[in-house]
Each structure stands twice: as C-alpha cells, then as structure tokens.
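User: For a benchmark we're assembling, each entry needs the component sequences followed by a predicted structure for the full assembly. Here are entry 17's components. Please fill in the structure.
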Amino acid sequence: MPRLVSHPDEVKIVSKRFGLGATDIDKYIELGGYQAAKKCLEQGPDWIIEEMKASNLRGRGGAGFPTGMKWSFVPKQSAKPKYVLVNGDESEPGTCKDHLIFLHDPHSVIEGTLIAGLSIGSKMGFIYLRGEYRYLLEIMEKAVADAYAKGFLGKNIFGTDTEFQIITQSGAGAYEVGEESALMESLEGKRGVPRIKPPFPAVVGLYGGPTVINNAETIATVPHVINMGGAAFAAVGSPRNGGTRLFGISGHVERPGVYELPMGYNLKKMIYDVAGGVRGDRKLKAVVPGGSSTPVLLPEEIENLGMDFDQVGKAGSMLGSGGVVVIDDRTCIVEFALRTISFYQHESCGWCIPCREGTDWLKKSLTRFHAGFGTAKDIDNIRYLAENMLGRTFCPLGDAAAMPTLGFVKKFRKEFEDHLDGKPCPFAKHAEMAVV
Amino acid sequence: MSAETMSIFSPKLAARFDALVEKYPVRRSALVPMLLYAQDEIGYLSDAVIAEVAHRIGITELDVRNVATYYSMLRFKPAGKYNVQVCTNISCMLRGAYDVFEKFQEELGIGHRGVTPDGIFSLEEVECIGACCWAPAIQVNYDFHDDLTPQSVPEILDRYRKVQDKEKNA
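Assistant: Structure for entry 17:
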C-alpha cells in the first residue's frame, strides 16, 4: 500500500481526504462531498466557467492549460453529443499522484467529472485508467456504482431533469495513450495513435463530438475550487498559477512521497526541507522537475526556483506532471539519459517517423556510448538527432524524448566526454545506485 | 453473442462481455478492456480469444490483432500464473531496481520475458508503473509491492508459492 507522507508546509486541499476513508460514499458526503456538484447544478454553466477561470487552475497533466478557458472553448450548441474525458492514464516516469487520488478519494474524480459535464452541457463522462491500475479501477467502479445508487449520477441527478452518466474504462499498457487524441482513439477501440490538430477536441473529439479532456488531478481539484470559490483558490498559489499541486518527490531523497504544496513553492526547499534532503548526506547532482520528459536542472538553477508553470518554464524546463526526480552525485548521467530514452523508444507509437526513428537511434547511440564505444562525434550527433525531432511530430512524445536528451548533453557534456574512447564508465554500474 | 451460446469464456465473464458492449455509445469502445479481461481469464490472447472478441464486437480478427499488438500488457503467448513485472524506470532505477530485477532473475532462474518450467512464475522488466514515490516497486499480476530491496525478493516469491500450494492441495 503506498505510504502517505506529510509536512507542515503542505496545504491540503486536493489531498485533504486522503487516509480518511472517503472511498466510502457516506464518509465522502460527511466530509462535504457532492455539495459542489449540487451548487453547480443550481448556478448553471456560465457561473461554473467563471469560477474556474477565476481560480487560475491549470491542467495538471503537464501542459498547464487554463482549465476554465479549455471548458469555455466547447461550443454551446452541438449536433453531436458532448463528452467529458478524464485522463487517468498516468504513465509519465516520476509521476504517481493520480494513483493516490483514485485510491483515497475516488468520489472527488466523479464529482469533478460531473461538474465539468454541467459546465459544457454534456450528459456523459468517461474515466480512463491505465491498465496497470486494476485495483484502482475497481475502487473507481464501486464509487461510480455508489454515486448512481445515491442519485448523483443517472437520468435525474439530484432529483432534477438533468442527466449525467459516467463510464469507467481500462487501458492495456501504453504511455502514448496519455496524449489526449491518442486517448480518444483508445477509447474508441483503436490503436492509440495521435490525431492531427486542429480540429481540437473541444470541437471534434470523442466519437466526433465536442470533448473536454482533463487530467485526473485537475478534475479532482474542481470540486474544491467550487467549494472554496475561484478567487480563494487562486490566492493559494502564485500569479496565474492557482492553488496547490500534488508534487511527487522520488529518487535520492530521504523522504520520498506525494506532497501537496502551493504552486510556486521553492524547489530547493521542497527537496531539502519537505523531502528531507539528499539521501545518505550525498550531494545533489541534478533534478528532473516535472516527470521524465522535462529537461534536467542543475543545483545552482533551483536556488530561487518557484515551482509553477511560468517560473520553471523561464528556467528552461517545464513543470510537467509535478514529478520531481532527485539525482545524487554518484549517479551516471549517461546511464540516466539512456534509461530515459529507452523508455521513449519503447513507448513511441511509431506513427510519426522523426519520433519512431529518432528515439531508436538515440537509444542505440547512448547504449553504445555508455558501454564505452562512443566517439567525440557521437555527442554532437545525439544533439543533432534530438534537435531534429523537436516540433516535427503529431503529438508531444517526440518532444518529450528530445528535450531531456538535449538537456543532458548540454548540461553534462563533460560527463559524456568522460565516457569516450573505451574509458570505463566513471560510475561503477548500478553498484552506487543500490539502496544504502 | 449471448452468454447462452457457445463461448470460450466462463459464464460470468461472458455475461460481463454481453453487458460491456452495450455500455458505450459505440460497441467497439469495449475492445481494449475486453481483450485485457479475456487475457486475465485465459492467460493470453489465443486465436480462439481473438475470434470470439472479433465476433462480439462485430469487427474482423485482423482488426482485433491490429489493435491488440499496440498495447504492451496484451500478450500472444502464455505467461506464468504469477507475472512478476519489475519497474526499472528512472525513479525505481535510482533506488536500486536493477538489483531487485537481478535478484528475481537469480531466484527464478529466468530472464526478461522468461517463464519458469512449472509455469508458475514469469518475469518482465517493465516501464513506469506509477509507484515512483514508493520505489523500487513491482507488480505481480495486478498487485503492487513497494519499497523493495533485493532481500525482500525471496519473501515475495514465497508468498505466492504458498498461495499456489494451498490451491494445489485444496
């Protein structure tokens, strides 16, 4: 069972019901659950969207798009049915926050889906979980059944004429399906390859109907935004970055875990205070700030870095999924880069050639390089390959593979050079990575 | 196809599939979960599974295969009864996942995608399973095991062996 952690600096909004038994619908109601949905039903779509816009809530999947604005793009009139799609295909290495939401607070996802549905005039929502999360899918399925039994879902929700249905769905193993258009393909029973945009899902989405797609954490945050009021939620975070975020801190720290901290919280403090610092009193070498696709940061780059979309973007990386991976000074960056690219090579769906070929060649080059058979030309070649993938694919997977690779080569060039011409890896393979 | 007609699945699963295809606005949406649930029961996507799923959805077998080959959890050969999936992605790797993986290889005497001769265990190195903050982590079928060390490996295997012995004797 995943362990829950806490720290005095945490502001528990999304995680406030974790560990309190809120999977039980009566407990969830006792803790204030389904009040937000009821209020939204009374206030109507325009009011919901205004509150969401005021909240400055931005997409927690990684792109950070303002949620209220996304919902407002859905046309009011549509010949085809509209849909809400919750992305619980959590697969970005370093990210396990949605895992805890499904485990501890499934009704917040249902309530958020319902509110999103009310805001766009949809009658049906889908909650898609990655296939590996079977035990969490079972928790979600029970929660959905309980919500139907209470009349919060169905033909006449809360005793009104409004209809809203929720269907839960299992994936079967695919990182790529976390991309919104690939997710729709998968839900339509196809291979999870991306669609070209435009048209955007808000206009032509699932089954060709207008569709809102949000990350599970974004959706679970929605009822709290409604309960607190958009402005109050915005005030918790930093400018243009409303509220809190579930930061998953993993890797070489003393106390890894998922911590809920205000947007804009200092990254150095997050590592040293909240997560207890680098394990075994080692030195910090690098930090991956928001899941494996975000470019690596050096210790000197995190001194005054506030963790929100804008500040991390300015620092040359991305806040991404909020998965902070901490790397100590005994880690081989070439091996780390190789493991990262191996993942993207494995997960590239093969639809776009720059991504399919690029990830494969990068993996081959880095494998050879790490084994001590690299040449000086390889370093620039790795860079050349990665640069030529950027912006040349249907979906962001190509960028997700290229960006961290470029970061490693740029910031750790010396370490790459140390691997040249048959020199053994300066870091004994795996040995120093073992548990101390 | 209804539960009463010929099905290779248990009556319970057949009934579940009958309902599943009706659940969505489009019948085909049932395909991906149906393949996974079928695999859970049969062990892998055999020709018979593909044929029945194609029939139930109303698409060709080729179409089913085209989709099935995309998803990494779906397989076309039997795995062990307990499929041990060791995550070695970055967060797990930093905390010793390769040592855990090596220990599993040693204990089971098989490598990546291997199956023990008795068919009880299989082993796989897998990508991120969403347990990064509790790394290194593995899944045995759908069960998560967190915060592992190589020392915890024999104990985990013993737990499944005991379940197996119990079932055998029952």
